[in-house]
User: What shape does this take?
Amino acid sequence: MAENESVKEPEIVIDVRNIKKKFKVYFDKGGQLKERLLFHNRNRYEVREVLKGISFSVKKGQAVGLIGHNGCGKSTTLKLLTKIMYPDEGEIEMKGRVSSLIELGAGFHPDMSGRENIYTNASIFGLTKKEIDARLHDIIAFSELEDYIDNPVRTYSSGMYMRLAFSVAINVDADILLIDEILAVGDTNFQTKCFNRLRELKASGMTIIIVTHDLNTIEKFCDTAIWINEGRIYYEGRSAEVVDAYYNFMNQRRLEEEAARHKAEAAMAGEPLPEEEAPAEKQEEAAADAPEVPAADAQEEAPPEIDYSTNRFGLRYIEITKARMINKHGADSRLFSTGDDLTIEIDYQIRRPLDEYIFGFGFYSLEGECLYGNNTQLDRLHITTDQKTGTIAVDVHDLPLLRGKYILNVAVVDKDGTPMDFYRNYCDFEVLSTDRSSGYFAVQHEWREIR
Assistant: This one.
């Protein structure tokens, strides 16, 4: 190569320039002509501007991910690229044959067989019958539907629909492939097979645009990502950078929503909470149904048997009347961030005095796996009291749990470990995090290179 000859840049195959799109959203539109004529005043609507002027370009061979919350305009953008609909303003230029997976089963006729639908669907993408004949075996083999290919597609499951639609879309020699969430359907093995095939197509020079809420897919597969927020491009760049920014934004928004909820609850402090937000009410009702425990000076009776299979069990000599998770702002919450300080408070009522009371808590996965558990006995703390009621609190520093939902268990037992009041699945709580690690715990670490 000559010194003055520059490396040729890949050509731009998708060029989107300042596109805008509005929709009329009807409040109560008549479904029949008679209704529209007689009740014309029902046809009230509002105009919603879904896209407010977005522009971007995609080079040949790039994989681009579109992300954003529901209703931000991702799918609308993809439908504009496929020319299912057209923009109100702006221009879109596409170079080459376009294949798309926009909606499950789009282009399929339910009464036609899978084989017949292959011919129909592939012809929509511009293939001739001769070209389809040459690809038919590969399409059927990839879909793994050999035993069902001559059955009507109305008998197919959603996963079978996806297999057939994907198999057609990747075998039409397209220059551009557009995918909208469809790969969320199907079993894990076939999803892996699809992504391996997508990597091959990307390596061969195909341009791919994916709309999905699966940010791991965006980060691992896509070169760049475009974050659309309220009809505008909020951030565009390397996929990992955009995904991190989106996580931070969504975490902050969740925390702000939680703070607003606490503020609203504080303003309504005199009103009872809805049943689903006050699990302690149910628990207090259950406590009222607990068997009577004889006083200490009464004649000794055999303690009732404990049914360990239930979510709440124990002798009830001491009862947990309520437990709370308190965030760093001092509010009762079910939403935290990795690294937060929080406090677990356990209110109790003594019905029969014991020599010692051992309180404990545990963090569990949704599958019931114990992630961490502790109690006052393990920490060599001896709780004795003459009070009938009270509260025990434990402060948790630098919460190490990663992003996800978890379960809190709380319990009180006697010094021999006999359950007095043991709550499985007392409540669930959610943890937000910007840590991209896998697993359950954030482990402090730092990478360095040793030469």
